[in-house]
Amino acid sequence: MTMAAGLQTAVTVPARFRGPEGIANGGWIAGTVSEALNGAGHDSAVEVTLHAPTPLETPLDLRQLANTATLTHGETLLVEAINVAERIEAPAFVPFDEAARAESGFPGMSAHAFPECFVCGLRAPGDGLRIFPGPVEGTDLVAAGWRVPMTVADEDGAVPDAIVWAALDCATGWAHFGPGESALLGRLTAQVHRPVHTGGVYSVVARATGREGRKLFGESALYEVDGTLVAAAKATWITRA
User: Fold this and answer.
1) What is the mean pLDDT of the chain?
2) Which Gene3D superfamilies did the record assign (predicted)?
3) Which domain holds residue 66?
4) CA nearest 183: which of 18, 17, 33, 19?
5) If you write DSSP's letter for every residue of 114-137 in order, what string do you get?
6) Are 135 and 142 within 8 A, CB to CB?
7) How many structural domains compose the chain?
8) Residue at which a domain ends, from 57, 84, 111
Protein backbone atom coordinates (compact mmCIF):
# COMPACT_ATOMS: atom_id res chain seq x y z
CA MET A 1 0.00 0.00 0.00
CA THR A 2 1.45 3.41 -1.01
CA MET A 3 0.08 6.69 0.30
CA ALA A 4 0.85 10.28 -0.53
CA ALA A 5 2.09 12.48 2.31
CA GLY A 6 -0.72 13.40 4.64
CA LEU A 7 -3.15 10.88 3.20
CA GLN A 8 -5.30 9.04 5.73
CA THR A 9 -6.74 5.65 4.83
CA ALA A 10 -9.24 3.45 6.66
CA VAL A 11 -7.99 -0.10 7.15
CA THR A 12 -9.30 -3.20 8.87
CA VAL A 13 -7.16 -6.13 10.03
CA PRO A 14 -8.73 -9.43 8.93
CA ALA A 15 -9.09 -12.01 11.70
CA ARG A 16 -6.75 -14.32 9.77
CA PHE A 17 -3.78 -12.16 10.78
CA ARG A 18 -4.26 -12.58 14.52
CA GLY A 19 -1.55 -13.21 17.08
CA PRO A 20 -2.91 -13.40 20.63
CA GLU A 21 -6.67 -13.91 20.68
CA GLY A 22 -8.54 -10.87 19.41
CA ILE A 23 -5.56 -8.77 18.33
CA ALA A 24 -3.29 -8.50 15.30
CA ASN A 25 -0.02 -10.38 15.00
CA GLY A 26 2.68 -7.87 15.91
CA GLY A 27 4.99 -8.59 13.01
CA TRP A 28 2.20 -8.48 10.44
CA ILE A 29 0.81 -5.15 11.62
CA ALA A 30 4.33 -3.70 11.94
CA GLY A 31 5.04 -4.71 8.34
CA THR A 32 1.74 -3.27 7.16
CA VAL A 33 2.48 0.14 8.69
CA SER A 34 6.07 -0.03 7.43
CA GLU A 35 4.81 -0.61 3.90
CA ALA A 36 2.53 2.42 4.20
CA LEU A 37 5.64 4.45 5.04
CA ASN A 38 7.99 3.07 2.37
CA GLY A 39 5.71 1.54 -0.25
CA ALA A 40 7.38 -1.45 -1.88
CA GLY A 41 10.87 0.04 -1.42
CA HIS A 42 13.43 -2.38 0.00
CA ASP A 43 16.79 -2.13 1.76
CA SER A 44 16.01 0.74 4.14
CA ALA A 45 15.45 -0.06 7.79
CA VAL A 46 12.16 0.86 9.46
CA GLU A 47 11.56 0.95 13.22
CA VAL A 48 8.01 0.17 14.28
CA THR A 49 6.78 0.70 17.82
CA LEU A 50 3.60 -1.03 18.97
CA HIS A 51 2.03 1.33 21.50
CA ALA A 52 -1.15 -0.68 22.08
CA PRO A 53 -2.69 -3.94 20.80
CA THR A 54 -4.33 -3.60 17.38
CA PRO A 55 -7.93 -4.91 17.31
CA LEU A 56 -9.23 -7.16 14.56
CA GLU A 57 -12.13 -6.49 12.19
CA THR A 58 -12.29 -2.87 13.36
CA PRO A 59 -12.00 0.28 11.19
CA LEU A 60 -8.64 1.94 11.91
CA ASP A 61 -6.91 5.03 10.53
CA LEU A 62 -3.57 4.62 8.75
CA ARG A 63 -1.78 7.90 8.06
CA GLN A 64 1.55 8.88 6.53
CA LEU A 65 2.97 12.26 7.49
CA ALA A 66 6.50 13.31 6.45
CA ASN A 67 8.76 10.48 7.63
CA THR A 68 6.27 8.80 9.96
CA ALA A 69 3.36 6.42 9.47
CA THR A 70 0.82 5.86 12.23
CA LEU A 71 -2.10 3.56 12.90
CA THR A 72 -4.77 4.84 15.26
CA HIS A 73 -8.13 3.76 16.64
CA GLY A 74 -10.04 6.91 17.51
CA GLU A 75 -7.68 8.93 19.70
CA THR A 76 -5.54 5.91 20.59
CA LEU A 77 -2.15 5.56 18.90
CA LEU A 78 -1.63 1.89 18.13
CA VAL A 79 1.43 1.70 15.88
CA GLU A 80 4.11 4.16 14.74
CA ALA A 81 6.76 3.58 12.04
CA ILE A 82 9.83 5.69 11.26
CA ASN A 83 12.77 5.28 8.90
CA VAL A 84 16.10 4.72 10.65
CA ALA A 85 19.64 4.95 9.29
CA GLU A 86 20.70 1.55 10.53
CA ARG A 87 21.88 -1.71 9.08
CA ILE A 88 20.38 -4.61 11.02
CA GLU A 89 22.77 -7.32 12.16
CA ALA A 90 21.65 -10.82 11.19
CA PRO A 91 22.19 -14.05 13.13
CA ALA A 92 24.24 -16.66 11.32
CA PHE A 93 22.87 -18.67 8.40
CA VAL A 94 21.44 -22.13 9.13
CA PRO A 95 20.97 -24.39 6.09
CA PHE A 96 17.35 -25.20 5.31
CA ASP A 97 17.57 -28.92 6.13
CA GLU A 98 19.14 -28.16 9.51
CA ALA A 99 16.58 -25.43 10.20
CA ALA A 100 13.75 -27.83 9.36
CA ARG A 101 15.20 -30.47 11.73
CA ALA A 102 15.29 -27.90 14.53
CA GLU A 103 11.50 -27.63 14.36
CA SER A 104 11.23 -30.91 16.26
CA GLY A 105 12.31 -28.98 19.37
CA PHE A 106 9.74 -26.20 18.99
CA PRO A 107 8.50 -25.51 22.56
CA GLY A 108 5.06 -24.47 21.34
CA MET A 109 4.23 -28.03 20.30
CA SER A 110 3.92 -29.07 23.93
CA ALA A 111 2.36 -25.84 25.25
CA HIS A 112 1.55 -22.70 23.25
CA ALA A 113 0.18 -19.50 24.80
CA PHE A 114 -1.19 -18.31 21.43
CA PRO A 115 -1.97 -21.46 19.39
CA GLU A 116 -3.97 -19.45 16.82
CA CYS A 117 -1.09 -17.09 15.99
CA PHE A 118 -0.83 -16.45 12.24
CA VAL A 119 2.94 -16.99 12.29
CA CYS A 120 3.83 -19.65 14.85
CA GLY A 121 0.43 -21.06 15.74
CA LEU A 122 -0.81 -24.54 14.99
CA ARG A 123 -3.02 -23.39 12.13
CA ALA A 124 -3.90 -25.40 9.03
CA PRO A 125 -1.29 -25.41 6.24
CA GLY A 126 -1.92 -22.45 3.94
CA ASP A 127 -3.91 -20.58 6.61
CA GLY A 128 -1.06 -19.68 8.95
CA LEU A 129 2.67 -19.52 8.19
CA ARG A 130 3.49 -22.48 10.49
CA ILE A 131 6.96 -21.23 11.44
CA PHE A 132 8.04 -23.39 14.40
CA PRO A 133 11.50 -22.33 15.65
CA GLY A 134 13.45 -24.86 17.67
CA PRO A 135 17.01 -24.92 19.06
CA VAL A 136 19.89 -25.58 16.66
CA GLU A 137 22.23 -28.05 18.31
CA GLY A 138 25.59 -26.66 19.36
CA THR A 139 24.58 -23.00 18.84
CA ASP A 140 22.69 -20.20 20.58
CA LEU A 141 20.24 -20.09 17.66
CA VAL A 142 16.69 -21.21 17.02
CA ALA A 143 15.59 -21.93 13.48
CA ALA A 144 12.77 -23.21 11.31
CA GLY A 145 12.32 -24.07 7.67
CA TRP A 146 9.66 -21.90 6.05
CA ARG A 147 7.77 -23.10 3.01
CA VAL A 148 5.96 -20.03 1.69
CA PRO A 149 2.30 -20.86 0.95
CA MET A 150 0.64 -19.62 -2.22
CA THR A 151 -2.16 -18.21 -0.05
CA VAL A 152 -0.05 -15.27 1.21
CA ALA A 153 0.43 -13.65 -2.21
CA ASP A 154 -1.30 -10.38 -3.01
CA GLU A 155 -3.42 -9.78 -6.12
CA ASP A 156 -0.24 -9.30 -8.19
CA GLY A 157 1.24 -12.59 -7.02
CA ALA A 158 3.88 -10.91 -4.81
CA VAL A 159 4.50 -11.62 -1.12
CA PRO A 160 3.78 -8.37 0.80
CA ASP A 161 6.33 -6.98 3.23
CA ALA A 162 3.75 -7.54 5.98
CA ILE A 163 4.24 -11.30 5.51
CA VAL A 164 8.03 -10.98 5.53
CA TRP A 165 7.93 -8.94 8.73
CA ALA A 166 5.59 -11.51 10.26
CA ALA A 167 8.04 -14.30 9.41
CA LEU A 168 10.80 -12.36 11.21
CA ASP A 169 8.69 -11.66 14.28
CA CYS A 170 7.83 -14.68 16.41
CA ALA A 171 11.20 -16.41 16.15
CA THR A 172 12.80 -13.62 18.19
CA GLY A 173 10.37 -14.45 20.99
CA TRP A 174 10.88 -18.20 20.76
CA ALA A 175 14.61 -17.60 21.18
CA HIS A 176 13.62 -16.82 24.80
CA PHE A 177 10.40 -18.78 25.43
CA GLY A 178 9.96 -22.20 26.90
CA PRO A 179 6.72 -24.22 26.60
CA GLY A 180 3.70 -22.06 27.40
CA GLU A 181 5.73 -18.87 27.91
CA SER A 182 4.84 -15.66 26.09
CA ALA A 183 5.28 -11.91 25.83
CA LEU A 184 3.94 -9.15 23.59
CA LEU A 185 5.97 -7.52 20.83
CA GLY A 186 6.86 -3.93 21.72
CA ARG A 187 9.13 -2.90 18.87
CA LEU A 188 10.38 -4.43 15.63
CA THR A 189 13.03 -2.90 13.40
CA ALA A 190 13.47 -4.66 10.07
CA GLN A 191 15.30 -4.37 6.79
CA VAL A 192 14.10 -6.27 3.71
CA HIS A 193 16.82 -6.76 1.10
CA ARG A 194 15.17 -9.07 -1.44
CA PRO A 195 11.65 -10.21 -2.35
CA VAL A 196 10.17 -13.44 -1.01
CA HIS A 197 8.48 -15.79 -3.47
CA THR A 198 5.51 -18.10 -2.96
CA GLY A 199 6.49 -21.74 -3.19
CA GLY A 200 10.01 -20.87 -2.07
CA VAL A 201 11.80 -22.38 0.91
CA TYR A 202 13.70 -20.25 3.40
CA SER A 203 15.53 -20.58 6.69
CA VAL A 204 14.18 -18.48 9.55
CA VAL A 205 16.92 -18.00 12.16
CA ALA A 206 16.86 -16.11 15.47
CA ARG A 207 18.77 -15.65 18.67
CA ALA A 208 18.23 -14.00 22.04
CA THR A 209 20.41 -10.94 22.55
CA GLY A 210 19.60 -9.97 26.14
CA ARG A 211 17.07 -9.18 28.81
CA GLU A 212 16.40 -6.06 30.90
CA GLY A 213 13.63 -6.24 33.46
CA ARG A 214 10.44 -7.09 31.55
CA LYS A 215 12.10 -6.48 28.18
CA LEU A 216 13.41 -9.35 26.04
CA PHE A 217 15.68 -8.62 23.07
CA GLY A 218 16.28 -10.75 20.00
CA GLU A 219 17.32 -10.66 16.37
CA SER A 220 16.23 -12.73 13.40
CA ALA A 221 16.96 -13.28 9.73
CA LEU A 222 15.45 -14.86 6.66
CA TYR A 223 17.81 -16.70 4.28
CA GLU A 224 17.50 -18.30 0.86
CA VAL A 225 18.72 -21.88 0.54
CA ASP A 226 22.12 -20.73 -0.75
CA GLY A 227 22.67 -18.50 2.29
CA THR A 228 21.68 -15.22 0.65
CA LEU A 229 20.27 -12.85 3.25
CA VAL A 230 16.69 -11.85 2.41
CA ALA A 231 15.72 -9.81 5.48
CA ALA A 232 16.80 -9.15 9.06
CA ALA A 233 15.16 -7.75 12.17
CA LYS A 234 15.70 -6.92 15.80
CA ALA A 235 12.89 -7.04 18.33
CA THR A 236 11.94 -5.95 21.82
CA TRP A 237 9.33 -8.00 23.65
CA ILE A 238 7.52 -7.03 26.87
CA THR A 239 6.68 -9.77 29.33
CA ARG A 240 3.49 -9.63 31.31
CA ALA A 241 3.73 -8.12 34.77
Assistant:
1) 93
2) Hotdog Thioesterase
3) 8-84
4) 19
5) -TT-TTTS-PPBTTB-----EEPT
6) yes
7) 2
8) 84
